[in-house]
TrEMBL record:
Claim: Glycoprotein is one of the keywords in the record: no
Domain Helicase C-terminal residue range list: 80-240
GO molecular function: helicase activity; hydrolase activity
Name this protein carries in UniProt: ATP-dependent helicase
CDD domains per record: SF2_C_SNF (cd18793)
Length: 258
């Protein structure tokens, strides 16, 4: 009879603040949208809110993703990249393989290049454009214990369902998908029949900004029913203007204390 030998451990949320560059970019975007929001209506307002959420999430990941200028993808510019680099180093030193999920294909590609070229890890990268034959080969190679520890980077939509990756016992969510069910489904790639180890789940939340507040909103079941939280960020456009401004505001005190 097949059973799952591994067991869930408490989920680990990594809290940190933005770099000074990230905070500056974030503040500029917020100031711009605050000026426009009160004059926008209907579809225009919804589009403005969604585009703002996208920009802020890009900044939270790395300035390069937001700027789209081909600048350096370095940990000095993003405390999130710095922290995941430290944690991956610890996992690889223990001989553990890991999964890294992101909703952004451009970040997945950058992580793949950075971890393979700068850190010299064995990496795989699966996204929506990956051919089926290559996808199957990557999964087989990753699942082969003789190949040693590796980092498997996956886009959340392409790699969040339908595959088994039990060679990994660490799961990192580099950026957050604001529906817990979607994240849990992705995490289940590692926690399936055949898993022999305990599974560690790591999530990243930037303090003093959008990420921290939405994480709190989703976690607080007393204030928000799970049915309200949709599959993407569109449910946030139902907030009134003042609530949205408070959601995206930059807490400068948090940045200074960090």
């Amino acid at each position: 009879m097949n059973i799952i030998h591994g067991m869930w451990l408490p989920k680990d949320t990594q809290d940190f603040v933005q770099s000074k560059e990230q905070a500056s970019l974030y503040e500029a975007v917020v100031k711009d949208v605050v000026k426009q929001l009160d004059e926008a209506e209907g579809i225009q307002r919804q589009g403005l809110m969604l585009s703002t959420l996208l920009k802020l999430k890009q900044i939270c990941n790395h300035p390069m993703q937001f700027l789209q200028d081909g600048s350096a993808f370095t940990p000095e510019r993003s405390h999130k990249l710095e922290r995941i680099g430290e944690m991956l180093e610890e996992a690889m030193a223990e001989g553990d393989s890991v999964l890294v999920f992101t909703q952004f294909t451009e970040i997945g590609g950058q992580l793949n290049r950075y971890l393979s070229r700068e850190k010299h890890y064995k990496t795989y990268y699966l996204h929506g454009g990956t051919q089926r034959s290559k996808r199957e080969q990557m999964v087989a190679d990753f699942q082969n214990p003789d190949n040693g520890p590796a980092v498997f980077i996956l886009s959340l939509k392409a790699g969040g369902v339908g595959i088994t990756l039990t060679q990994a016992n660490h799961v990192f969510h580099f950026d957050r998908w604001w529906n817990p069910a979607v994240e849990n489904q992705a995490t289940d790639r590692a926690f399936r029949i055949g898993q022999q180890k305990n599974v560690f789940v790591h999530k990243f939340v930037t303090l003093g900004i959008l990420e921290e507040r939405i994480d709190q909103m989703i976690s607080d079941k007393q204030k928000m029913a799970e049915s309200i939280v949709g599959n993407d960020e569109s449910w946030l456009t139902k907030l009134d203007n003042q609530a949205f401004k408070e959601l995206i505001a930059l807490n400068k005190q948090t940045i200074m204390e960090g």
